[in-house]
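retry 2 of 3: previous attempt timed out while embedding uridine-5'-diphosphate. Reduced batch size to 1 and resubmitted. Inputs unchanged:
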Amino acid sequence: IPPSVLTIQGLPIHLLADYAQWLRERVEQGQGTQVVTLNAEMVMQAAQNPSLKAVIQQAELVVPDGVGVTWYLKLRRRGTYHAPGIDLVSQVLAHLQGKAVFFLGGAPEVGERAAQYWRQRNPNLVMAGVRHGYFSPAEEAEIVAQLQRQQPRLILVALGVPRQEIWIQKHRHICPQSVWVGVGGSLDIWAG
Ligand code: UDP
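retry 2 succeeded.
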């Protein structure tokens, strides 16, 4: 079922009853997807940054995130749509099995600790790999090669806004069957 779309300052917000269910299906079926969790700060950044704006407009799923965007939706629509990015990705990771996951970003060791956290919560989770987000151009080429080789079905990218969104759009063709999500500070939260 394609999501219905509402627009905020030229940016789409997709309205779905169950975001986690939709994402789980995309991962299961290997349907290439870029997910943006859109909060008020990103709406403001996009107004100043045409590259970010274009990425958001082209993402297959733009999830309302944060109280600002949720409040705006309440004004425009009947329902309440609240899907904080970290909860959404947590719901997918908690039940995933058989399909490999990759964590890219965060300070050195943050990704490894986040992976450890998830291995404990979901013993069936398959971690394809973890790479920190402070890479040189040569290391970036290695990361790209690793992703290309492993084809993880779910790739979480924590490089901060807007870099993570733009990085995903630039590289998503190397894993055309993957679901790519810009997760901001989520790895730090799981790392504790
Ligand atoms: N980050 C990174 N490489 C960078 C910049 C940021 O890996 O060059 C990571 C940072 O360590 C953190 C995450 O990106 O885990 C989110 O960064 P930040 O909180 O600055 O961005 P925001 O989510 O607030 O946009």
